[in-house]
UniProtKB/TrEMBL annotation:
This is MFS transporter. It comes from the Bacteria. Keywords: Membrane, Transmembrane, Transmembrane helix. Gene3D superfamilies: MFS general substrate transporter like domains. SUPFAM superfamilies: MFS general substrate transporter. The chain crosses the membrane at residues 12-32, 52-71, 83-101, 107-129, 141-162, 168-190, 220-242, 248-273, 285-302, 371-389.
């Protein structure tokens, strides 16, 4: 990665603000879309809810397959064109989804959206900031995730309003238009071109370079990949099955909904704490704190007491909010800015696969056993993540 010139604070603030708007739009119209539109799609088409939600899993698998290549592209050419392409792909995928009359066309739409997710969600955005700001990108990554945390808070009500007023198909068309009218201009106008990078090495040369890294470097990378993948399994399962688990634990629907509503504000609070007070803390320590809060929150759900569940989800949400930031800052601090985009892409692949597979495996556990059994599995995964985080260094350790 070429050397980056310092960016004025005003320009950096404008960059993060613009990319934050892009992230809100991107997450709202991809990852969070089935939570609102899955039921209307099922009612209108006759497709089962499982087949409809499987579209998101397909998109996540496609994103995981493409993320390493996207990361390398950002390292070589910067993220401006990649993020702009993601807006075009999201518009195309959403327009095709709105027009889909048959399930294969619906899955094709999610395949295109998966390509867009690889090029336009957090990992690509983090890599873009790394290419522009180098080692100084940490605070900007924190600010970006802070803004992106409002995606569900703003996106779900907007999606519900559009679906109620226009129907799910026209809602998809409106979202497609928003990517072309809002997302695309934002990236083209506010994301600067990255400094010219050296000529890219061949795939064989890159593979040999990776294989030639010191053993300690490769072990550290694998340890970090394991930690982030475990956390992705936990986070995706909780986000999809929280309400079901609370109901199976014996809580009333109204109580379960109220408890679930704590998640969003708690995540934002965790991100604000990391953004304001955690900048002097090494990301390894912030990661350990985040995983510990998630573990304690999961365990506090086991007694199945409503008042305790409020505390549990507040702790879990705060921890997950912190981990959303350290997912981007930890690789930057541990390995440095050189090759940051490619590294983020490689880390994203198992994480996205975990996000696709986790909720499906969790549903099987709920059907075959109980909510308590699923909570114990989640606690075990979080504990394994905590043990992995304890092996991470608390100093910069680039190769």
């Amino acid at each position: 990665m070429p050397q980056t010139a310092p960016m004025p604070s005003v320009s950096r603030f404008r960059l993060v603000g613009a990319m934050g708007i892009g992230q809100i739009l991107a997450w709202s119209s991809t990852y969070y879309l089935p939570a609102v539109l899955a039921s209307p799609i099922t009612q209108a088409t006759g497709w089962s809810i499982t087949r409809v939600v499987m579209g998101l899993s397909l998109g996540l698998l496609v994103a995981g397959a493409c993320s390493p290549r996207v990361g390398r592209m950002i390292d070589r050419h910067g993220g401006r064109s990649t993020l702009a392409a993601s807006s075009i792909l999201m518009a195309l995928g959403l327009a095709l989804m709105g027009a889909a009359q048959h399930l294969p066309v619906y899955y094709l739409a999610w395949t295109i959206i998966g390509l867009a997710m690889a090029a336009g969600l957090y990992d690509a955005a983090f890599a873009t900031l790394g290419s522009l700001l180098g080692s100084a990108a940490r605070s900007s990554i924190s600010g970006l995730t802070l803004l992106g945390g409002f995606a569900s808070t703003l996106g779900w009500p907007l999606l519900a309003y559009l679906e109620h007023q226009l129907g799910w198909r026209d809602a998809c068309f409106v979202l497609a238009g928003a990517h072309l009218a809002v997302g695309l201009p934002i990236y083209l106008l506010f994301v600067p071109k990255a400094p010219t990078a050296p000529a890219p090495a061949s795939s064989r040369t890159q593979a040999n370079a990776e294989a030639g890294q010191p053993l300690a470097y490769r072990q550290l990378f694998l340890l970090l990949a394991l930690l982030l993948t475990l956390q992705s399994l936990v986070a995706s399962t909780v986000s999809v099955h929280l309400l079901d688990m609370l109901k199976l634990l014996g809580m009333a629907t109204a109580s379960a909904l109220a408890i679930g509503m704590i998640m969003g504000p708690a995540q934002v609070a965790g991100r604000i704490a990391e953004f304001t007070w955690g900048q002097g803390l090494h990301p390894t320590w912030a990661t350990r704190l985040g995983v510990l809060l998630c573990l304690v929150g999961i365990l506090l759900l086991v007694p199945a007491q409503a008042w305790l569940a409020f505390v549990a989800i507040a702790l879990y949400g705060a921890g997950n909010g912190i981990l959303t930031i350290t997912r981007g800052t930890l690789p930057l601090v541990l390995f440095g800015p050189t090759g940051y985009g490619a590294r983020m892409g490689l880390l994203a692949r198992p994480m996205l696969v975990a996000q696709a597979a986790g909720p499906i495996g969790a549903a099987m556990i709920l059907d075959a056993f109980s909510a308590e059994a699923l909570l114990m599995v989640l606690a075990s995964l979080a504990l394994a993540g905590l043990l992995a985080s304890s092996r991470l260094p608390t100093r910069e350790a680039g190769p």
